Amino acid sequence: MTHTSLGSVTIPVYLEGGANKITIQMEGILFVPIPKETVIFHVVLGEPVMEFGKVPAWVKNNAEWWAKGLISDDDFLKGIEYLVENGIISISGTMSESKPFNIGAVDLSQASPIFGSADAEVTIIEFGDYQCPNCKKWFLNTKPDIVTNYIDTGKANLYFVDFAFLGDDSITSAIATYCADEQGLYWDYHSHLYSNQSGIDGGWANYSSLKEYAKVLELDETSFVDCMDSGNYDEAIAFNLDVGISNGVKGTPSFVVVGLNGQELISGPQPYPVFQSTIDAMLGS
């Protein structure tokens, strides 16, 4: 038996016929097997397991612990699988009128606008979550050198693909960047989010804060709010999550670097020399 949350966790168990729900609460930590003598069961009949459509606390906890390196990738993915299986996250393969746009094996039809020259020989595709601490680390420590040495020089370009999984505000912040893109300020809003990142679902990326950022960046507030409320980009967020999973992404940040001689997956906030070596090899430098 394993346990997926610090302290206690609620697990739905459905009896034959589905007439009852049993809530089991267990004491333990993380995904470490629990000795029999430490397990305490409290059976409660008839109570709702969770509010439909909400991300359970244990999934948020797992995401935060994974970001800190406290649990494995496989254990973290159990949370995403739970969200998909229970309809909290829907992954759809049918996007309205979008046509596939692939670079390498990655469908970028719902990705960010291109950052850099379309004529660049190398494309860097970043999969990220705006609430991910390691994504902010890469944004601050590695990205600036890549921009200076490869993007500004026309050797490489960059796309960002949302892999929004860490919490409720991960999804709304991703949607906000699409709404900023409608007014031509995607990358400004993107950078503003990482520059203001704080704790997961800690309020810094909630609906009110996202509207305030739009105001700071001098976006048309009415158009921005209408966009946020429209639901127009919900499917795009789910689609991008599916794109990441199908390309071997197990966490954020992850990168697919594509060149004329193939593509390479880089996982985690790797330092600049790792990207330098990969990009130079693809450029034949």
Main sheet: strand order: 7-6-8-9
Strand composition percent: 5-15%
In whole angstroms, the N-to-C terminal distance is 52 Å
Number of domains: 2
- Corresponding CATH superfamily of the largest domain: Glutaredoxin
CATH architecture of the largest domain: 3-Layer(aba) Sandwich
CATH topological fold name of the largest domain: Glutaredoxin
Low-confidence stretches: 1-52, 92-96
Give the overall average pLDDT.
Answer: 82
Total number of helices = 10
Describe the 3D structure.
The protein has 285 residues and is α+β, with helices and mostly antiparallel strands. It folds into 2 domains: 10-85, no CATH class; 102-283, Glutaredoxin (3-Layer(aba) Sandwich), CATH 3.40.30. The chain is 39% helix and 15% strand. The protein has 10 helices and 9 strands. It has helices spanning 57-67, 73-85, 133-141, 143-151, 168-181, 186-195, 207-216, 221-230, 234-246, 272-283, and strands at residues 10-14, 21-25, 44-45, 102-103, 106-107, 122-128, 156-162, 254-259, 262-267. The strands form 3 sheets. Strands 7-6-8-9 form a 4-stranded mixed β-sheet. A 3-stranded antiparallel β-sheet has the order 1-2-3, with no helix packed on it. A two-stranded antiparallel ribbon has the order 4-5. Strand 8 (254-259) and strand 9 form a beta hairpin. Helix 1 (57-67) packs antiparallel against helix 2 and helix 5 runs antiparallel to helix 6 (186-195). The termini are far apart.
